[in-house]
Amino acid sequence: MYPRMKHLIVASALALSVLTGHAIAASPRRCAPVRKPPPRQSPMPGARLERFCAPLAVDLLVYKGGQSQGFHVERGAGTLIHENGYILAAYHATSGGHMHIMFMHDGKKLDKTKRGFRIVATASDYDTALLKMEVGPHGVRAARLGRDTDTGVGQKVLLIGNPGGKSHTIHHGVVTYMHEEGGRLLFDKTDVNPGDSGGSTFNTRGELIGMVQLKLFGGQNYTGASVHIDRLRMGFAKVLADETNHDYKLGLTVDMYGPAKVTRVTADSPAAEAGIKVGDVIRQLGDMVIDDGMHYVCALYDIDCARPRSVKFERNGETYKTFVTPQTTSDLREPEGVEGELKPGLNCAVYKGRWGKLPDFASLEPEGRMVVRKVGLRAAPSKDKFGLTFKGYIRIPRDGRWTFYTRSDDGSKLWIGNQLVVDNNYMHSATIEQSGIILLKKGWHPLKIHYFELVGKESLSMLIAGPQTQKQEVPGTALGHRPSAQ
Ligand SMILES: [Ca+2]
Q: How confident is the model at residue 242 (pLDDT cuts 50, 70, 90)?
């Protein structure tokens, strides 16, 4: 090949990479090792274990209700799992509510509405929530994450929770049963109360081996139970690490049951272009040091799309540094509705009943059906004790990442196609707003909303925000339905 031609080919490759937004392939270079994980502790006697573990736990307070139903406070707890301020808590002890307060062991108070911390991600199927301190995580110590093999029947455990608001309450217990299938539940004889939800379960080495949880999987009715750490690791891998949670991808999967060892690299992905290979152990992403697969999942939530991020990893005893440029995911949901076939408004079905949460409307016979111009309570059959379902299509003006919100008194849920986007279930006032994100292509997408009202005040609204679209109530002009469909 002539030198001139070679030059031209390199130049056109560069131009192409700029157009498609891909990073130029970066070769990993050797660098200084990342700081080692904290050493494993020897088993500690009771008082020393308490002193070691107590600063790793946090208390949570959620203010719920409204003027019509009365206010009440729900309590829960959580555990610091990374020194950057990441906290593991129970989804059911952090969802809903209009004010969220966190107390650290030293009495420091963090208010979510004042940006003291945020709810980074939730996985309701695994009853798991990931929180992050927004201010002053500097100097916090985080729990070493254990495995299911780190505890067995007959061994001592330490539980820290917040029963009845008695902050940082410590129970000592003994593992009496371990459920190996369908959830790996850990049972112990301690007296666990509602305020303990999301609380820490430590072994005698001070390693986090579970999360206190009264709401159990599989419909079994046990009390005094913790969800085992391996079940939480699985939830992290299946739900929180799922790249559909983010609007970018790296093309990387890591082991969730220990150090973040790379188990899969997708061909032509940003990770592959950055020279990361199966077997490498990810040790740092951006400024976040990674000692465990769960840390890697936390770090994913701190990434900005289309900005190169430094990655440090270990290979054959050496540490290397490279850069990945997260790629925008192109799997936007395809529209289904056809412009000319839709009529304005949504199909609305009206139900009467007394529910404290959304019923299975599909199994109920509606009292009536009508078409409504927009989402609201125009079809309400009475002031109390009723439910409504809305079905039709919503017009999305442009491709991108869309956030849907419902504000409802009482509960509501919103689906796009078969995907549940907003979960705003249960009794609460309309000050409660919940939201969810979905990637959509321009066009008409199937929309479904379920709503119920038990007593007191009642209201329902749907809002949307997205590319070049400020958060706003969805106008009737963006809604359509098939006249034949119910
Ligand atoms: Ca109400």
A: low
Full set of structural domains in the chain with CATH = 26-240 (2.40.10.120), 339-481 (2.60.120.1560)
Strand-pair partners of 391:
347, 448
DSSP 360: -
CA 372 to ligand 1 center in whole angstroms: 21
CA of 387 to the centre of ligand 1 (A): 11
Cα torsion 109, 93, 464, 114 to 10°: value is: 0
Ligand 1 center–CA 430 separation, angstroms:
8
Neighbours of ion ligand 1 (CB under 5 A): 409-410, 456
Which helix (H) or strand (E) covers residue 35, if one does?
Answer: none
Ligand 1 centroid distance, CA of 409 (Å): 5
Digit-coded pLDDT (tens) for 166-198: 677 888 877 777 765 434 455 544 556 666 778
Question: pTM above the 0.70 mark?
Answer: no
> 455 C-alpha to center of ligand 1: Å?
5
Length of the chain: 486
Q: pLDDT tens for residues 70-82?
A: 778 888 889 999 9
CB neighbours (10 Å) of residue 187?
19
